[in-house]
Design goal:
The structure is a homodimer of 331-residue chains. Chain A is α/β, with parallel strands linked by helices and 331 residues long. Chain A is built from twelve helices and nine strands.
Chain lengths: 331, 331
């Protein structure tokens, strides 16, 4: 299989899960000290992850929880951020300029900052009040922190049982998804690599990953034109430009917003012959109860898009690491 | 001028401004009774307006203020909504199914609901706890309510002076914008009516109108393919697919997020020859101080897009009232 080292990948997810005792210690200390609100800060792909964490928490929490785009915070500001705020961010490079500035601004306003940074020693790893340095697995790191808050709030009684299953089975289960999605990924890449415009639709905690896949993978890494739309919004405009040939992919997860994507699929079945459904439910997760799958649906569909990416890159010959402008052109 | 009845339009805006004493009475009663949070509910175009109101308020408020997508609320829920919540919505038809259900759900949770409905006697006009029935001017109605809250919170000391100017001069000023933008609108429509994909970028309180123009006007009414992107996010993916010929329109307003769009324009000037800037600053608003223009920038750019719409419709022969699917096909 292209770009797939099973052992390495399993070890990566296992290592992320092993961060949980440290995350619990941090969240518990914040919770016990008293929390006014919880802000998930990001930009681009990390903003997408922030939206995912917020959507996931909103199913249960009464806390004031919100996502915040770093560049918007730097301009418009946000007076909710101050003493009693925990601000959480993630960064791969540890140097994204908007995040560096936003963290400083939030700290000056009195917020405490928890950073998940891939690389130790970088600016953001040093600036965060509390930092966990571990590569990749951004959503998993966010969701572990989010779920610990839900547990402490008393609205996630299954926390221990669920994470016991994740610890035991999630790494292998996700690797298994990649293996079983490889043929599909190759076929999808071949069929859609030259689409003039591809639409992606998602909802719930998968909306963030839909937005991110369209923008941070297809646009930024493959230079493919895409548009992402929330399934809730699809029927309030976008539907009118769908014809028989329009390429549309719907990401379906297993959280409470699943019916919104089902509605889109029903519509597409009537009017379109060029849509694809990537449904987490189609993939087995051995060792994980059905009741817990909603928490990891976005990791399942991400495992599927990993296979699309590997084949797109191989077929197009376009290296996903190349950027035309980002961090190259001044603006 | 096509589709432009100056007298009627001036009367429409003047009538909306005349709702202010009633809005003040409503907001003051809510404020005096004590408010836990303020939720702007919407879907599609009205969700876009909700995002605008929230962004506008966030420049100053410490209140918990948030926008909520009705379909997301119906599935994921939102435990912040309850006693002490004022939920504000707008509806043209008064029958949008997601809003009807979301209003009932919020009321059951204890929220008080203020509706701006175009037509009296419709379902939503009857369901709202408090309803103001007056056609069109959705953003203006929302901003009048938002600004009254800011005034009562003590963070908008210029409220009276600013609205005195709006009352006196805004109706004629906006009509003047339409007249001076007509030649531009015709040229834009002619140049871009056959674009395979047109990108729209905006920020601040104009992001909602950018999203809405791309989706509710271009897609829904003109059946043109578009993508909208927040200027803050433009540099985290979308920039990579911009080449010399890519059609991009940037909406620029005068609120604190203006620098985010200026950055996009600087980038486009380097790599692209097919972009358009629609800048509220280019249009005179006689009788309105520069300091107040940020509050109505989105109305200025909307006046400009009105002219594009009129010419697009005339050139394409595609009646903006026609829908292929919405409220016609079951899904």
């Amino acid at each position: 299989m292209l770009k797939f080292d099973e052992k390495e990948q399993i070890a990566s997810v296992r290592g992320a899960l092993a961060l949980r005792p440290r995350i619990e210690e941090i969240v518990d200390a914040v919770w016990d000290a008293g929390l006014k609100n919880l802000c998930w800060l990001g930009i681009g792909g990390t903003w997408a992850s922030a939206m995912q964490a917020v959507c996931h928490m909103k199913e249960r929490t009464s806390l004031e929880v919100f996502s915040l785009n770093a560049a918007e915070y730097l301009t418009t500001g946000d007076r909710r951020i101050g003493n009693g705020t925990l601000l959480v961010f993630s960064s791969v490079t540890g140097t994204t300029s908007e995040i560096v500035q936003a963290v400083a601004k939030a700290q000056a306003a009195g917020a405490k900052v928890l950073g998940f940074v891939d690389t130790a020693g970088t600016t953001l790893a040093e600036k965060a009040d509390i930092c966990i340095c571990y590569p990749k697995n951004e959503q998993l790191k966010f969701f572990m922190a989010a779920d610990r808050f839900l547990f402490r709030e008393g609205v996630m009684p299954e926390y221990e049982a669920m994470y016991a299953q994740f610890d035991r089975s999630l790494p292998e289960a996700l690797a298994g998804v990649e293996k079983s999605a490889d043929t599909f990924g190759a076929a999808f890449a071949e069929k859609h690599m030259n689409d003039a415009l591809h639409y992606f639709v998602g909802a719930g905690a998968l909306y963030g990953s839909t937005y991110s896949y369209a923008m941070c993978y297809c646009e930024e890494m493959h230079w493919m034109r895409t548009k992402s739309i929330h399934a809730a919004e699809f029927f309030h405009g976008m539907l009118e430009i769908v014809d028989e040939d329009t390429p549309v992919t719907v990401f379906m997860g297993e959280d409470r917003q699943r019916p919104l994507t089902e509605r889109v699929v029903r519509f597409l079945e009537k009017v379109n012959r060029n849509h694809t459904v990537i449904d987490s439910r189609d993939y087995a997760l051995p060792g994980i109860d059905d009741a817990y799958r909603y928490s990891v649906s976005h990791l399942v569909t991400h495992a599927v898009t990993n296979r699309i990416d590997a084949h797109l890159e191989a077929l197009s010959g376009h290296d996903m690491e190349i950027r035309r402008y980002y961090r190259k052109v001044e603006y």
